[in-house]
Design goal:
heterodimer, A: six-stranded mixed sheet, B: mainly alpha, 10 helices
C-alpha cells in the first residue's frame, strides 16, 4: 500500500451468507487515495459498490483484507437520505456539528435556503438528498464517502452538487470516494475511475481521467469514453437486453 | 379532543352516574349501594378533615416512585435485551419468571425480606410493573432502524446525543404505551401493597372502611384516586406522547 496515502483499501474477499453456503461479491479490490483526490467507483447497480463503501466506512467488518482510513472527520451520504424524520432540516444538520452560518450557507448553495424549519417529510426525495449532501459537507471533512450522490437529481441540480463536492476536494483538501453507475457522471467529476467488473466483482481498471478533459465537450472525451465502453460495455447508459447477465 | 368527542365523553359519564343513581334507588339499601350524593358527602367531609388529601398524597408519592423506578429500570433492561441477542437470552428466563409470579407473592416476600416499610412497598410495586415495561421497550428496541445507528456511528455521535436524538424518539411510542398502561396498573398494585402492610395511604384507608363495610367511603376513595390518575394521564402522559409524535402528523 502506498506509504503517503490517506486511504488505503485492500479487500481480498468479501462474501454474504446465501442458501447453501456463501455468495462471493468482491475479490481483489485494492486502491489508495489522498487528500484532494476524487475517486469514483464505477460499475452497474448491484456490483458491490455500496459494499465497498460500507467496508471503507467501517460499517462492514466481515471481509478479508484491511482498510486504512484518514484520521479526522468523515462526511457520508448514504444511498437513501437517512434524515431523522423527527428533527427539522436544521436539527438534522446541527446534529453532526454544523454552525448556523455554515448550515445557512450550504443550504443556499444547494438551492434550499429557508428550509431549515421543515421536517424531512415535507421534502421531495431530491431535496432530502441535497440536505444529506449538506450534512456530509459540514465541518470540512477529511474524507467524503458518497453513495450514488447524484441519483434522482435533474442534471442542473446534479451539476450544482458536483461543484460543491469538487470544491470540498480542491479547496478543503478532502479525499472524495463516490460510487456511480453513470460513466458521464464519473468522467465529469472524478480524478480516477475505479471500474469494477466480473462476478465476484474485482477492480478491473484504475483510470486517471486527466486525459479525457474536464469539460463535458472536451475534444478528448469521446475517444476516452469510447475506449472505456469498448473495454467495459456494461458501462453503457443503454439498458442491457432482457436476459443478459 | 374535538367538541363532539368531548360531548360524547360527558354524555357517557352522565349515563354512568344516572345508571348508578337509578340502581341505588332501586336497591333501597344505602349501606350496600349508596347514591352519588352520599358518596360526594363522604368525600367532602373526608377532604375537610384532611384525611383524604393526606392519604391520596401519600399514595401518589408511592405510585410516582414505583412508576419512575419501573419505567427507568424496565426501559434500560428492555433496551439492552432488544439490542443484544446474548443479553436477551440471559434476561428472558428472568422476565418469564417475573411476569408469571403472582403479585401477592412479590409483595409478601418484599415485606418479609426488607421489612414493613416504604422501601419494600415501592420496590414490590416496581418489581411487579417492571417486566411489562421491559417487554414493551424490548419490542421497541428490536424495531430501531439500523440505518440510524450507522449514521450515528460514522458521524461519531456521543452516546448522549445518540440516546436523546436517535434512540428515544424511535422508542417514544413504546415508552408512551408502557407509561400509560404502567400508571393504571401501578396505582392499583400500590393499593394492595398499602392494604397489606402500610399504616397510611388510600389502600390503608380502604382497609379501614372495609372493616366497617362503609361502601360510600370505599367508592369515594376509589373514584377520587381514579380521577387523579386520569388527570395525570390527561395532563402529563398524553401531552408528552402527542408532543413526541408530532413529527408523524
Amino acid at each position: 500500500m502506498p506509504g503517503d496515502a490517506e486511504l488505503a483499501v485492500r479487500i481480498g474477499a468479501k462474501s454474504y451468507p446465501a442458501a447453501g453456503g456463501r455468495r462471493a461479491v468482491l475479490r481483489d479490490v485494492a486502491f489508495a487515495g489522498r487528500g484532494g483526490e476524487i475517486l469514483a467507483l464505477l460499475a452497474p447497480s448491484g456490483s458491490g459498490k455500496t459494499t465497498i463503501l460500507r467496508i471503507v466506512l467501517g460499517l462492514d467488518r466481515e471481509f478479508e483484507g484491511e482498510v486504512v482510513r484518514p484520521e479526522g472527520r468523515l462526511g457520508v451520504m448514504f444511498q437513501e437520505p437517512r434524515l431523522l424524520p423527527w428533527l427539522t432540516v436544521a436539527g438534522n444538520l446541527r446534529l453532526v456539528g454544523g454552525t448556523a452560518a455554515d448550515i445557512a450557507g450550504l443550504l443556499a448553495a444547494v438551492g434550499l435556503a429557508g428550509t431549515e424549519t421543515l421536517h424531512p417529510k415535507a421534502l421531495s426525495l431530491g431535496m432530502a438528498r441535497r440536505v444529506a449532501l449538506v450534512r456530509a459537507l459540514l465541518g470540512k471533512p477529511r474524507m467524503l464517502v458518497l453513495d450514488e450522490p447524484f441519483a434522482s437529481l435533474d442534471p442542473r441540480a446534479a451539476g450544482e452538487l458536483a461543484a460543491l463536492v469538487v470544491r470540498a476536494a480542491r479547496r478543503d483538501g478532502a479525499l472524495v470516494l463516490l460510487s456511480t453507475h453513470d460513466l458521464d457522471q464519473g468522467l465529469g467529476i472524478a480524478d480516477r475511475l475505479l471500474v469494477l467488473a466480473g462476478t465476484p466483482a474485482s477492480l478491473a481498471a484504475d483510470c486517471p481521467t486527466s486525459q479525457a478533459g474536464r469539460a463535458p465537450n472536451a475534444p478528448a472525451r469521446p475517444h476516452f469514453k469510447q475506449k472505456l465502453l469498448t473495454r467495459f460495455p456494461f458501462l453503457s447508459a443503454e439498458p442491457a437486453p432482457e436476459g443478459a447477465p | 379532543m374535538s367538541g363532539a368527542a368531548a360531548r360524547g365523553r360527558a354524555l357517557s359519564l352522565a349515563a354512568f352516574v344516572g345508571l348508578w343513581w337509578g340502581a341505588a334507588l332501586i336497591a333501597r339499601n344505602p349501606a350496600l349501594l349508596p347514591a352519588p350524593p352520599a358518596v360526594l358527602g363522604f368525600a367532602w367531609h373526608a377532604t375537610l378533615s384532611g384525611a383524604m388529601p393526606r392519604n391520596i398524597a401519600i399514595t401518589s408519592l408511592r405510585v410516582a416512585a414505583a412508576f419512575v423506578i419501573s419505567m427507568l429500570a424496565g426501559s434500560a433492561v428492555g433496551y439492552i435485551a432488544g439490542r443484544s441477542r446474548r443479553a436477551d437470552t440471559l434476561i428472558d428466563p428472568w422476565l418469564v419468571i417475573l411476569l408469571n409470579l403472582p403479585v401477592l407473592v412479590v409483595v409478601v416476600l418484599c415485606y418479609i425480606w426488607i421489612g414493613l416499610n416504604d422501601v419494600a412497598a415501592v420496590l414490590a410495586v416496581a418489581l411487579v410493573k417492571m417486566p411489562t415495561v421491559m417487554v414493551t421497550v424490548r419490542e421497541g428496541a428490536r424495531a430501531l432502524d439500523p440505518g440510524f445507528d450507522e449514521l450515528a456511528s460514522v458521524y461519531r455521535l456521543a452516546w448522549r446525543q445518540r440516546l436523546r436524538r436517535i434512540v428515544v424518539p424511535q422508542l417514544a411510542p413504546y415508552l408512551a404505551a408502557a407509561g400509560r398502561s404502567g400508571l393504571s396498573i401501578t396505582w392499583k398494585i400500590v393499593l394492595i401493597v398499602e392494604l397489606l402492610g402500610r399504616p397510611n395511604g388510600v389502600g390503608f384507608a380502604l382497609d379501614e372502611l372495609f372493616q366497617t363495610f362503609d361502601v360510600a367511603g370505599i367508592l369515594a376513595y376509589g373514584f377520587a384516586f381514579a380521577a387523579l390518575m386520569l388527570l395525570v394521564e390527561g395532563l402529563l402522559l398524553r401531552p408528552w406522547e402527542s408532543h413526541a409524535n408530532a413529527w408523524r402528523r
